[in-house]
From TrEMBL, chains A, B:
Gene3D superfamilies: 3.40.50.1100. Keywords: Lyase, Magnesium, Pyridoxal phosphate. One of its GO terms (biological process) is D-serine biosynthetic process. The keyword Glycoprotein does not apply. This is Threonine dehydratase. Residues 32-305 form the Tryptophan synthase beta chain-like PALP domain. It comes from the Bacteria.
Length: 322, 322
């Protein structure tokens, strides 16, 4: 276990060196996903993080954060709508660590089932209480908090997605990342801008949860209410930025674009029909954005962030897409 | 363009050197697919060839065969229920070559649409007439025949799947390949047995199209009627072996197991739900076999051969799986 990036480092931006250091812990548990040409959608290649063991890129941040824990750590606690909790549970189990996940009561059953299957203990609360409950358990149970995105080790882990994209022969003109809490966009932005400053990093949000676009436009972190953001089907994009991820997006993300619910739903169906990938709505955000705006983006890589979708919803969207 | 393995070589078994030579042509158009852990199914990793640009491993054989054509070749003709025709059309288009595909009238629409989209010309005939029609067009149109499996260059191309599986850190105990015409099993068997003789190569067929199992048991090639083999949902497994692929299977495949239609259908649903992969019924044969028999197979890699499935069927199987 390495040195954790501690409280003193919290507003320091994650560097390429941090991400390269995270890469070895990530390689132990994550798949190195290929880039898949998606000619049906134009000059697009997909980075299918839905194929990770836990169905999402989150395994990378969890692996990096757990690798950086002190040897004496008794266990970890987090809050998550599903993918981060499942990833942390998966990695914690492989290290014999206790893992408690605070889950908003709106989380889809497919995700809560998957979290339980890792051996993690679940605590279900209303969406607005998830962070405070995790904070309380941290103290009462003596656990270490591994938040889903507001942590430099987690961001460094997610950044390995960018490292892998840039390790291909030619740097793309554009990289598309979904934005929820901003951990993936922060890490990918840090990696891409360090290795290929000319490559544009574009974040994608649902129109109904466009708090990051709003924040970048206003020049400071803007928080949307959970009532507002919970309207979108893209459950991974309902969370808001932290000061740390806002600082990364402000430094490394060129632009944030938004897509409608109908565009997200269509993209889920098209990814299954045309690229044979099962994606969750949040995972389809970047493809939806490319179909909407991509003509001027040149060679583009879209991160398909996750694939944990309810089968009934997938079946519905599969039949709706053309 | 390299030297084609000509008629004099037709009963010579494909070697590791042939497969290694095919690898560079394959790398130009195919994705190097990763191995995906599928813990939900035991000690199983998946080789997801459904993620290839044409949705199937067939792009490898097509690339190898077209790379070996003489410079003067005016175009190619083949017979295919879909995936090979699409692959050949895709690679031919990238070389500016004409491509004619003879298609059995039972081919699913998703596959005929995909073949047409590559620019290939389609000729639809009853299933029993596909080989004779392709042979006739070869002479009347002056085209070179690239059969879907009965050709050493095609087999060498498919063998690169085995080369990639064995390039991982540790050789698996078992490799599972679906068997239709036998091109994939021939090539993978040749590669695996050359690189790791102790690794078992197990072919998988539908019970309703078990002509290869029958052939290996009887020690010579047994042909089942199209009426018989066309009963299975796994359309890629309806074809029978050639003398060339029978000779490879006899030399390199340890065993062939069979699965029922219900087991195939369940595996399609499970691959989508648990591994986030859209597979066609033939692509799910190996997973079905692992779920049925895999407890004693040790560390196993299953080739998911393709993913071109009708959306209505996928939606149905997705909801049926648990």
């Amino acid at each position: 276990m390495g040195r954790a990036l501690g409280d003193n480092d919290r507003m320091r931006l994650v560097t390429l060196a941090d991400i390269e250091r995270a890469a070895s812990a990530v390689a132990e548990v994550a798949v190195r996903t290929p880039l898949l040409p998606a000619d049906w959608a134009g000059r697009l290649r997909l980075k299918p993080e839905n194929l990770q063991p836990v169905g999402a890129f989150k395994i990378r941040g969890a692996a990096a954060a757990i690798a950086a824990l002190p040897e004496s750590a008794p266990g970890v606690v987090t809050h998550s709508s599903g993918n981060h909790g499942r990833a942390l549970g998966h990695v914690a189990a492989s290290r014999g660590l206790r893992c408690v996940v605070v889950v908003p009561d709106s989380a889809p059953k497919v995700k809560t089932d998957a979290m339980r299957a890792t051996g993690a203990e679940l605590v279900i609360v209303p969406g607005s209480q998830r962070e405070s409950t995790a904070e309380r358990l941290r103290h009462s149970e003596g656990l270490l908090l591994v938040p889903p995105y507001d942590h430099p080790d987690v961001i460094a882990g997610q950044g390995t997605v960018g490292l892998e994209i840039l390790s291909e022969a030619e740097a793309p003109d554009t990289v598309l990342v979904p934005v929820g809490g901003g951990g993936l966009a922060s890490g990918v932005g840090a990696a891409v801008k360090a290795l290929s400053p000319r490559t544009r990093v574009i974040g994608v949000e649902p129109e109904l949860a466009a708090d990051a676009a709003d924040s970048l436009r206003q020049g400071h972190r803007v928080v949307w209410s959970t009532e507002a953001t919970y309207r979108t089907i893209a459950d991974g994009a309902r969370t808001t930025l932290s000061e740390l991820t806002f600082a990364h997006l402000d430094a490394f993300v060129d632009e944030i674009v938004t897509v409608t619910e109908a565009e997200i739903r269509a993209a889920v169906g098209l990814l299954a029909r045309r690229s044979r990938l099962v994606s969750e709505p949040t995972g389809a955000l970047t493809t939806a954005a490319h179909l909407k705006y991509g003509d001027s983006w040149g060679d583009t890589v879209a991160v398909v962030s996750g694939g944990n979708v309810e089968p009934t919803l997938l079946a519905e969207l599969l039949m709706a897409a053309t």
